[in-house]
Design a protein that fits this description.
The chain is an alpha+beta fold and 489 residues long. It contains 15 helices and 23 strands. The chain has a 7-stranded mixed sheet with strand order 3-7-8-14-11-10-9. Strands 16-15-17-18-19 form a 5-stranded mixed sheet, sandwiched between helices. The chain is globular and about 80 Å long. It binds one RNA strand of 77 nucleotides through α2, β11, β14, α11 and α12.
RNA sequence: CGGGCGGUAGCUUAGCUCGGCAAAGCGCCUGGUUUGGGACCAGGAGACCGCGAGUUCGAAUCUCGCCCGCCCGACCA
């Protein structure tokens, strides 16, 4: 049999723009050809197809388990928010105002409403307003709420999963009796998010506080996770906000403390969205299409039966039927592709869809009580005995998950730099992307100047682990923070 | 939201200047031969030519308005 190289194999890929030719087009091609999502005909509104939604479901299941474990409860709050409520927190409405969609008419006659209703861009305001009913005493705290829903933000520019006018997410909103407890809550959730990003999506992230300019409207501080995509752009993969008493003040959320004094709550909010599905595409995909981390893969193992005639098929079917129950029992998400196509079509199809492991199974294999296993990353063919196959596949999937993370981690390492002056930063981003660490004075003017001169690069995270040293990369004053810079989605 | 480009079958496009029977490849359906890396033969279905007005004997083609998409900016999870 002729050995084919990976390059030759990639020639088989039709329909997808090469990543190196045009990354944006590549991304769109992959998302659409892998049947993850499409545009709907209404500007900026997407339809998420089962293969994309299943990945989101796997993420939601993982995160929902985490927050339930730590005492959070799911609620459902209204979609529509009265104008009067939305505008109460000044910084918040100033931040979200430009992208709020309004319902102003209703009924067959399209009668004007007395008060416009905002379609939620996020729910701090309505939850703040409603939650006060359920909080009287410190004994009612903490109140740990979450909701799974979609929100609408009137974006001017859209990209599937990354920026659509409607997107699906969870928004957690918690209320506490002390500042420290709320601060700890925001940190706790950030840790969960890190686990989702790194352990589930296999995307290594830098985490830390946002600069003032990048902080959520109305928050005291915002914690963030930033991943690196294969085009060198950063992507925010989750944020967790500490509000102090800002929202409690605006919405009068107070409680009686142990000394019977009235006190305002301390609150947080935090969210991850369907954007993470886009992150997974851009962090792991290649010119053949998707590569899906096993832990979130809708299909972890695809089995391609190979046969010539009805007898051959019966033989292969009986063989496969002998051990697939073991896979099911082991919780391995698998599918046997019985479609009436040739094997080569199926190989290409499932590679485009990024299924981690494929088993080619024909009469030869049945006779030898083995299968031919091919993984999506190396495309090496390996014969595997069916005896103990469930455990073997479990191990392979775990190894695949790790390999994906390691590869992404290595990629980030190769694309992370330490620089010290604005000139260097400007020169750097003219040539390439990635993360650049610099010392920063903490002045917003320096941040703005860097953004203006280095082609839109922004401060992604403040590193609170390492002590800053040296002078600000822009103004030369002593640095207060060590910060990561990147161009971001 | 500003500037540029585009929208013809499920997909990719030709036709548009110069108005005159709506085409091709892929995909889809049926039958047959095939099947260990994207097969082949034969037949077939499939198009309010983005939507709406206008000009004209006649519009995919010309004009205007709107919708949707792509690229570049400003804004952003």
């Amino acid at each position: 049999m002729k050995e084919t190289t990976i390059e030759e194999q990639q020639d088989f890929v039709k329909d997808i723009t090469k990543m190196s030719d045009d990354f944006d087009r590549w991304y769109t091609d992959v998302v659409r050809k892998a049947e993850m999502a499409d545009w709907s005909g209404v500007r900026g509104m997407m339809v998420v197809r089962p293969y994309g939604w299943a990945m989101w479901e796997n993420i939601t299941r993982a995160f929902d388990d985490m927050i339930k474990e730590s005492g959070h409860e799911n609620w459902a709050f209204p979609l529509l928010i009265p104008q009067e409520l939305l505008v109460k927190e000044a910084a918040h409405i100033e931040g979200f105002g430009p992208e709020v969609a309004w319902v102003t008419k209703a009924g067959a006659a399209m009668e004007e409403l007395e008060e416009p209703l905002a379609v939620r861009p996020t729910s701090e305001t309505i939850i703040g307003h409603l939650i006060r009913r359920y909080i009287q005493s410190h004994r009612d705290l903490p109140k740990l709420t979450n909701q799974w829903n979609s929100v609408v933000r009137w974006e001017m520019r859209s990209r599937l999963f990354l920026r659509s006018r409607e997107f699906w997410w969870q928004e957690g909103h918690t209320f506490h009796a002390s500042a420290q407890e709320a601060i700890d809550e925001a940190e706790l959730i950030l840790g969960y998010y890190r686990s989702i990003a790194e352990d589930w999506l296999a995307v290594p992230v830098f985490s830390g506080k946002k600069s003032r300019a990048e902080t959520f409207p109305g928050a005291e501080h915002t914690l963030t996770l930033e991943g690196l995509m294969r085009d060198g752009m950063a992507l925010q993969m989750g944020t967790s906000h500490y509000f102090g008493q800002n929202f409690a003040r605006a919405y009068d959320i107070s409680f009686s403390n142990k000394d019977n004094e009235k006190e305002l709550c301390y609150s947080t909010s935090w969210g991850i969205s369907t954007r993470l599905v886009g992150a997974l595409v851009m962090a792991h995909g290649d010119d053949s299409g998707l590569v899906v981390p096993p832990r979130v893969a809708p299909i972890q193992v695809v089995i391609v039966p190979i046969y010539r005639d009805a007898d051959g098929r019966a033989k292969v079917e009986a063989f496969i039927g002998g051990w697939t129950p073991e896979l099911k029992a082991a919780g391995i998400r698998h599918r046997v592709d019985w479609r009436d196509e040739r094997p080569g079509d199926k190989y290409a199809h499932w590679e485009l869809k990024g299924v981690p492991l494929r088993l080619n199974v024909g009469a030869r294999d049945a006779d030898a009580a083995q299968v031919e296993m091919v993984d999506r990353l190396s495309r090496q063919r390996v014969s595997v005995p069916v005896s103990g196959i469930a455990q073997r596949l479990r191990d392979e999937l775990d190894a695949f998950q790790k390999k994906l993370f390691d590869r992404a981690h290595e990629f980030r390492k190769e694309n992370t730099y330490e620089l010290s002056t604005l000139d260097e930063v400007v020169a750097h981003f003219k040539e390439r992307g990635g993360f650049v660490w610099v010392p920063w004075s903490g002045d917003a003017e320096c941040e703005e100047r860097a953004k203006a001169e280095a082609g839109g690069v922004t401060i992604r995270t403040l590193d609170d682990e390492e002590k800053p040293s040296g002078e600000c990369f822009v103004c030369g004053k002593p640095a207060k923070h060590r910060v990561s810079l990147a161009k971001a989605y």
